[in-house]
Amino acid sequence: MTTAARRGGIAAATPAGPADPADSLHPGQRWLSRELASPPGRVVIEHVRPAVNGGRFPVKRVVGDVFTVTASIFAEGHDQLSAILHYRRRGARSWSETAMTLLRNDQWQGGFPLESLGMYEYYVTGCVDEFASWRHALERKVRAGLEVSSELLEGARIVESVATHAEDDRTWLGLQARDLREGTDRPARIAAALDPQLLTRMTRHLDRGRATRSEPVLLVDVDRERARSGAWYEMFPRSASPEPGRHGTFADCIDRLPYVASMGFDVLYLPPIHPIGVTHRKGRNNARVAESGDVGSPWAIGSADGGHDAVHPALGTLADFDRLLEEAKLFDIEIALDIAWQCSPDHPWIREHPEWFRHRPDGTIQYAENPPKKYEDIVPLHFATPRWRELWEELLRVVRFWIDRGVKIFRVDNPHTKPFAFWEWLIRTIKDDHPDVIFLSEAFTRPSVMRYLAKCGFTQSYTYFTWRNTKEELTEYLTELCNTEIADYLRPNLFANTPDILHEVLQSGGRAAHQIRFVLAATLAGSYGIYGPHFELAESRAVAGTEEYLDSEKYQLRHWQLDQPASLAPFIGHVNRIRRENPAFRHPERLRFLTVDNEHLIAYTRSTPDGGNLMIVVVNLSPYHAHRGWLELPLEALGLEADQPFQAHDLLSNARFLWRGSRNFVALDPREAPAHIFRVRRRLRTEHDFDYYM
Amino acid sequence: MTTAARRGGIAAATPAGPADPADSLHPGQRWLSRELASPPGRVVIEHVRPAVNGGRFPVKRVVGDVFTVTASIFAEGHDQLSAILHYRRRGARSWSETAMTLLRNDQWQGGFPLESLGMYEYYVTGCVDEFASWRHALERKVRAGLEVSSELLEGARIVESVATHAEDDRTWLGLQARDLREGTDRPARIAAALDPQLLTRMTRHLDRGRATRSEPVLLVDVDRERARSGAWYEMFPRSASPEPGRHGTFADCIDRLPYVASMGFDVLYLPPIHPIGVTHRKGRNNARVAESGDVGSPWAIGSADGGHDAVHPALGTLADFDRLLEEAKLFDIEIALDIAWQCSPDHPWIREHPEWFRHRPDGTIQYAENPPKKYEDIVPLHFATPRWRELWEELLRVVRFWIDRGVKIFRVDNPHTKPFAFWEWLIRTIKDDHPDVIFLSEAFTRPSVMRYLAKCGFTQSYTYFTWRNTKEELTEYLTELCNTEIADYLRPNLFANTPDILHEVLQSGGRAAHQIRFVLAATLAGSYGIYGPHFELAESRAVAGTEEYLDSEKYQLRHWQLDQPASLAPFIGHVNRIRRENPAFRHPERLRFLTVDNEHLIAYTRSTPDGGNLMIVVVNLSPYHAHRGWLELPLEALGLEADQPFQAHDLLSNARFLWRGSRNFVALDPREAPAHIFRVRRRLRTEHDFDYYM
Asked: What pLDDT, in 10s, does the model give residues B268-302?
């Protein structure tokens, strides 16, 4: 067992049942009971944000971010307060501190830089600042010309009491207190009292013995940039062969890398690469019975050739796979693997660990089903088996196996059918050792379950994006994902299509619909993906009445002619270059929808937190008709001046528009271009400089 | 020391400082650490509502309410769940249970009746219902005509396992399991499996050993109806004398009761009735120095005649006060007293307990001040004195003293300058013994402090209502108070004026402005108050440039001529009768603003939870000009039919309007009436009944 597995700790045998609720009031209530009689301190700290489920789960952020924390902090009366944000890398021995500042209405804010990957902890303390309160009242009285001799004596007493325990400042503070008490005249005593250096030193020695501390200590999980933003390309390796009819190999995938790189993708995601079972193997188009030569579904994992830690012999060897990983690096492409915790009936685990499966009264193992869908070629693992500890440890071992080969990104199949606790434990245990690993959750299920999987640790999540097509649907859904507290823990990855989902819009809308959905996916959030070459070739024939691709690669080899004139590959490459060159697209939380007076036109801005890179995207949602409309820009919020022209540079067409004011005309014909992706160039010089824009 | 004081428990000496944060992660995180290794159960329970600060404070409700609790409850996969709402009166030995029902999207709801005053506890459990899940899958398979013999054996196994521990149902379940396993034919076995009685009994014996329990246990504080709704009248007893120049007495107050009752008030609130200090006594209109015969501010509490547990000799004796309490009961009026934890320099505590006050370096006690305001006649108590335990216990004793005489309602002066912990302890300790006691918080301070005082236990709270006068201000503020989670803990009491606040609108708007503000106060929330006879006589002369009444009763006796023709007393009585006769006004959470196309007209509905009593209030906010407009009614939400007429009966004018559809005309002239208070009468019979409305 590895260190982290032990740390992950699954030693106890059963989930916890309800304890006696009598002792289970909120801890903050306990001082009111007979036994605990120490009242809370004067300072209240409420609403420390961000926090996921009150601290039950970590917040997610990316390395290099400044992590901003806000809280309501106040006390009774009118005293001045001081608030500190405390933080450390998890496991560090000591805490760092940074002062929080009062914004307004008892709202305080502080921040610290997230300098390395992994978990940070943070909490907030607040206390009454007796000296600052005294000083503030003195200032008001001095300004009002009031008698303050008693106040000066009080101040001297405060300074003296601090001086007694202020090691290095003891002498200085003692002298200052003497000036307050016995200064030559009233002005000299007041000057000593209001000396800014006295305030600085007194603040340094502020007595935090009675400070209030926010509870619980909160967590923020710091990932690398790829966790937040990246362009994903999904491809079946077995269809990568240049020769029709020959099973593709890892070597063919290596040959495909320049093509994928030319489109500008960051991640190449491969469906399962493991041996495929033969028992109940599915035929082409999901036929109940396979015919000779049918290759079966890659998700029917396991055969005599091995299970989840083996590769399908037809694809090559583990050494070949290792070479693919190496070659991909040369193109700045990361290989993502699929994790599908399920087995074909021929998986070695079924023979070696029958106790990991649920047996029916007739002795058989129930295949997977979601009536009326049946997956006779797949049997599920029994996660609640009495031997769950061994099962969970084995699955952890499998993930480590691929990490040890160099894989750092996993797309997880159907996580919503496995226990939440399993995922929380697995992902935390892996990330304790490998904070750069990314898990993408493929859960198309109820919203609460999708969100909870994200809370349990999944780095990114598939979404309902494929089923959100109208302006209203897209606006509502992306606002929810990017501009609510959901964004603190769930990072959307907008897949435009998948081997399971060919939306009707793509089936009927042809090449233009593919362009439209691509621009939306690529510009609405941080991460997105397509499943190719179907997508870039707009190959969208479906099994009638379904969202399934006809002749799906899930059940058969396909041969692809990539160099078609109509291929979207150059367009995709162009958009991905725009994404890379404009950091605005790495900040999904900076999404803002704009008003356009045409329901077929959707418009939104993306920007960097400092506003320096500002993009305006306008998409014609109709693949059939040209649409035009007036776009409303909230100039002030965008940092644009109402009376100064600015340039909207469409990076797709390279056209430049001179705009001024909040209302601007846009027109898009899907036969020419589905979208504008404007970069806003603010005027920085006057017209006399002859160089109007930068 | 009383029982409850001991229970309140203030034995420890100092507020708690921060503990070691290392052990302070959210309890839900702990299973991921090395030591605690038992993973959470399969079922997740999130977002249990209502809850105040995650259970740190009780929710507030009123006796007779059905308390509705919602939660997100779900598990991985597709199993059927069962959820239970557990509740008990605090301190009861056993818990009651009620089944929750699934609304949609993993949202569950349950409820229980609040049958008595005091604190209830509640929590939620959820578990996987193995039998129901199996039954649901069986139904789908049977409907699809699939082979289910193995399923029936599985079902038999489930039933048998339950039968072994199902005492009274053991035999019946055993027989049923046999029918599943060995029934005469397939239809008989399926019929046995789907027998509704089997489902009922299996549900009864559902194994909750692996149930998930929501944490923490939550609290709901159940008050009497007066906590939520009531009409308050504030009056200075010393101005109640019928003879000009004579100091009013409790006997005069008794004589005033019929007048107050005729206006329909529920609560008669008296400013402090205690002996008034002479040192630094304020003169008329807050003069720095009192003249001979000046009576001083009632808030300068304490003299040689006694302190907070004495009455001012000029008002009468304690026996006289007791008689006022008794007489008021005959008019269904409750007497509310003022709690002002402060002292005149002559208060007995200053001599007996100098350690309860903060002494300045020159030996004096600092008077109260909030620069530039000075209260030389008042010294504050030092709540953080090292002898705070004795001080707090004495204040508790004072409250008990008045409760023992029969006072059940207290208006608390300036609570925001005393520690939150003091209030939480005092109110909880009192209410443990006297759950019918009501505390009204007079805190005009920052929103977070006002809200936190409510969380700490105050039954009702003064608000910013007096400073919210435009349609936009009123709509935004009352929506926040009545239609957000703030309503779970803060109950507004809308005072239209107070001895400290004579808003400019009342200063300049005359009688009409008083009517307008009165209707708003009386119909926008559950509780409201006026300070009379100033208010009903529209006596609104101010100290120039301030919100202070001229010749304020705070500093002098006033004599009132009550039977003026222009008095609003009859109007007030009319509105209060409408309030009493229409239970809609007891449900502030049922406030809904309506659209009117005139910014001077504000309109809203109030209703009972069942919608049976539906009121529409329209107010012309201008005291100067008539205004008219079109009112938009959301018919469906109001339970009105679009194609049926309904009657809007203006209970103020007794005029009846026949309305149909969502758009209706309204016009209000402040010279005639400031408002409509419509009762909506839905048509229940056809026109052939000749009796169109009920």
From this structure: 999 999 999 999 999 999 999 999 999 999 999 99
What pLDDT sits at residue B514? 98
Q: What is the pLDDT of residues B42-63, one digit of tens each?
A: 999 999 999 999 999 999 999 9
Phi and psi, residue B88, nearest 5°: -165, 160
Closest CA to B162 of B139, B132, B194, B142: B132
Whether B437 and B430 have beta carbons less than 8 Å apart is answered as yes
What is d(CA B286, CA A382) in angstroms, rounded to the nearest whole number? 80
- Is the pLDDT score of A167 beyond 90? no
Rounded CA-CA distance A336/B631 in Å is: 60
Neighbours of A602 (CB within 10 A): 24
B450 Cα to chain A: minimum distance (Å): 10
CB contact under 8 A, A446 and B106: yes
Look at residue A285 and tell me whether its pLDDT is greater than 50.
Answer: yes
Measured CA to CA in angstroms, residue A304 lies from A99, A676, B529 at distances of 62, 53, 83
Q: From residue A690, give the alpha-carbon distance in Å to each of A137, A656, A680.
A: 56, 17, 19
The DSSP letter of residue A315 is T
**Given a cut of 60, is residue B9 above it in pLDDT?**
no
Give the integer Cα–Cα distance in Å for A641 and A644: 5
pLDDT in tens, A597-635: 999 999 999 999 999 999 999 999 999 999 999 999 999
State yes or no: pLDDT of A505 exceeds 80. Answer: yes
> What is the least distance, in Å, from the CA of B22 to any CA of chain A?
8
In the numeric block, which tokens belong to residue A425? 């434990």
CA distance A366 to A363: 9
A-chain residues within 8 Å CB-CB of B76? Answer: 416-420, 449
Helices within B470-561 (DSSP H only): 471-483, 504-524
- Residue partners of B670: CB distance under 8 A and separation at least 6: B512, B515, B516, B620, B622, B623, B624, B625, B626
Closest to B577 measured CA to CA, from B514, B654, B509, B500: B654
Instruction: Please give the radius of gyration of chain B, using alpha carbons only, rounded to the nearest integer.
Output: 31
Indicate whether B692 pLDDT > 60.
no
Average pLDDT over residues B151-164: 93
Max Cα-Cα span within chain B: 106
Q: Which residue type occupies B216?
A: P
Type of residue at A154: E
Q: From CA B222, how far away is CA A489, in angstroms rounded?
A: 37
As given in the structure block, the two tokens for residue A272 are 């399962």
CB of B364 within 8 Å of a chain A CB? The answer is yes
Distance between CA atoms of A351 and A308, rounded to whole angstroms? 14
User: Which are the contacts of A424, defined by CB distance < 8 A and separation ≥ 6?
Assistant: A456, A457, B32, B39
A9, pLDDT greater than 70: no
For A414-464, how does the pLDDT look when each residue is reduced to its tens digit (9 = 90+)? Answer: 999 999 999 999 999 999 999 999 999 999 899 999 999 999 999 999 999
Q: How far apart are CA B482 and CA A347, in angstroms?
A: 60
CB pairs under 8 A between A and B: 254
> What does the alpha-carbon distance between residue A412 and residue A424 come to, in Å, rounded to a whole number?
13
Cβ contact B390:B311 at 8 Å: no
Q: Which residues contact B353 (CB under 8 A, 6 or more apart)?
A: B387, B390, B391, B394
Judged by average pLDDT, the poorest of A351-365, B38-52, B501-515, B679-693 is: B679-693
A15: chain B residues, CB-CB within 8 Å: 38-42, 210
Instruction: State both tokens at B483.
Output: 């239609």
Residue (of B604, B607, B614) closest to B680 by Cα position: B614
Tokens found for residue A271: 């469906």
Contact B518, B568 (CB under 8 A): yes
Which ranges constitute the DSSP H helices of A13-126?
none
Q: What secondary structure letter does DSSP report for B117?
A: S
Each residue of A63-76: pLDDT tens digit?
999 999 999 999 99
